[in-house]
Amino acid sequence: MEKIDMEQVSSVTLEELPCNLCGSRESAVLYQRPYLTPHDQKVGAFAATTDEFLNYGRIVSCLKCGLCYTNPRPTAEAILSGYGNYVDESYLLESSSRSINAHLSLNTIRRFTSTGKLLEVGSSVGYFLNAARTDFEVTGLEPSRWAAEEARRRFKVECYPESLENPSSIQGRSFDVVAMSDVVEHLLDPKSAVLSCRNFLKPGGILYLLTPDIGSLSAKLMRGYWWGLRPAHIYYFSRQTMTQMLMGNGFEILTIKSFGRIFSYSYWLSRLKNYPKSVFLTVGGVIKALGLENKLVYIDTRDSMEICARKR
Ligand SMILES: [Zn+2]
Hints:
Bound molecules: zinc ion
Strand order of the largest sheet: 8-7-6-9-10-15-12
CATH class of the largest domain: Alpha Beta
Radius of gyration: 19 Å
Structural class: alpha/beta
């Protein structure tokens, strides 16, 4: 792999890779910013709650298939060690809304199957595993040692501090559902991950994915300022590239649709803090005046997509 120099705020080595979907090396630069690589920060840009903004490096679009990805990017070793070490206590603050959001995902999964064994890859501190227990026998893989331990301690669920690259604790097992929520955009090799998920699925099993949609209207309107562009995201799928990835690797698509979420008004407000200050202050003032800070609200910005696919 070719190593290249590029403006970056931190000192991790970057390398250039071909398109993960079609293998082409021909691409066009979509957006370019300095790169604050998350992989040598303590908590930094790995965290789900990160407010790291506009430091996502160079995002390219493959000229052959249209897949968008960060290129160059940190080495696999740097990325994997970053996830193993990450700790994000602030993720626990929105625990009630994260539990409800897990049920929104489960509602979609239950349209296709509602019983059996479920594996969640990237299960974080276990909200989804805990929610899924009402219907499924659940197992989690979570590379962050802190998060995997938190899931076991809080919810007494089976969760291993491992990643899909080396899932030694679940070798030889098979599942009716494999779920990855807000995970595929972080993975080193989504194509291998999809194939690995397929290997862990029983015949006819369901793969559930949730990820930002770079083909959405808000991504197109916000361009380089879209919230989905973050240093820890290295792949950006659209409905078209996701369909191609799944159909080309042994799946049929059952549904692709936008995914809204429930959070407190103050959490939604915090998402606006990188945008013009007048907007942040006005919306914040209204929320405060109405006493809504801790009230939960469902918002679908139509730029996250959830997908269910069946193993062919
Ligand atoms: Zn491509």
